[in-house]
Amino acid sequence: MKLLLSLYLLFFSLLFGSNENNSSKHKDLIIISKKTKETNTSILYEETVVKNIVINSINAIVPDFLEVTPKEHFLKVKFNYDIKNKEFSAHVNLRVLLPSLEKTFTSVKATNNFTKYKQKNIKLKISPLLRIYNHIPEIVFHNTLEYNNIFSSKLSFGETIDIYTFNAVIHENTSLSYEKDNILFKINKSLSSEDPGNINYYFGTYYYSDYFKYIRIYGMEIGGEKDLKPFIYYYKLFFTYRHILFNRRYLFLEFSPYILFSKEYEYKFKTFADISINFNF
Q: What's the confidence (pLDDT) of residue 230?
């Protein structure tokens, strides 16, 4: 039964979903309204559309912790060996990405005698999706608010709320980031109605290089959660290397060694690593 439901979801994901590299991308959206306003130094855009979820296979290799809102995939497969727990695991996440409703506000302003441009963007999106939960199809509403201020650097804010209708669970994630010259600073907070009153949080600093065929990331994170003491429960220093396979950015090998300094190990330095093969589409 589970196999039939998985095949059902896969069929409709291919039917409704689309690849961002598809040249017929305009066929995947319906424009409800579109407005443009021009001034002497700026242009304002406002657009409301209904469109099929665009599967971004080019950026599938980029980790979610480098973004303020998580990417959408209809299929995620991961084979992982966790050296910390000495465990091999396999994870498969399959979803139908249904047409979404998007509202976008964009402001482009010329500066320095029209030699540079400053862009502000606000995007509201409601993305329903279908997944299998306890062998039963479930509708999930993936709602996002994203703000970007781009000039010589990039300031971003993201708010994501996932509503799971089958078991009435709500997950919320809030991120604030600042990026300049491939260096990213990020603050993240998440909570769930399954664990009311508790809050997970972390602050991260990352330096990354994207060479298309592989990505290198040097990172440092400190964080914890409200129900655990002290406030900074762990410190993590890591290196992540992702290399694409068969020249496909959505199929890649990941190697991520890290040093952990946390209360879990009585604040003694521990060295671990994760090794995995990933397929994100």
A: 92
**Residue ranges in the chain assigned as alpha helix (H):** 2-16
Query: Which residues lie closer than 8 Å to 134 by C-beta, 6 or more apart?
Result: 166
Q: Which residues contact 195 (CB under 8 A, 6 or more apart)?
A: none
User: Helix (H, G, I), strand (E, B), or coil: what is residue 11?
Assistant: helix
Is 91 within 8 Å of 77 (Cβ atoms)?
Answer: yes
Nearest to 64 by CA among 244, 273, 215: 215
Q: Confidence class of residue 41 from pLDDT cuts 50, 70 and 90? A: confident
pLDDT digits (tens, 9 = 90+) for 215-270: 999 999 999 999 999 999 999 999 999 999 998 888 999 999 999 999 988 999 99
Q: Is the dihedral of CA 194, 197, 200, 203 positive or negative?
A: positive
Q: What does DSSP say about strands 169-180 and 87-97: parallel, antiparallel, or unpaired?
A: unpaired
Give the separation between CA 115 and CA 230, rounded to whole angstroms: 50
Confidence of residue 28 (pLDDT cuts 50, 70, 90): low
The pair of three-digit structure tokens given for residue 59, joined into one six-digit string: 């950026």
Per the structure block, which two tokens stand in for 173? 């994630």
For residue 209, count other CB atoms closer than 10 A to its CB.
10
Q: Report the distance separating Cα 191 and Cα 162, nearest Å.
A: 11
pLDDT band for position 152 (cuts 50, 70, 90)? confident
Count CB-CB contacts under 10 A for residue 175: 22
CA dihedral 225, 227, 232, 233 (to 10 degrees): -90
Task: Output the CA angle 23-106-57, nearest 5 degrees.
Answer: 35
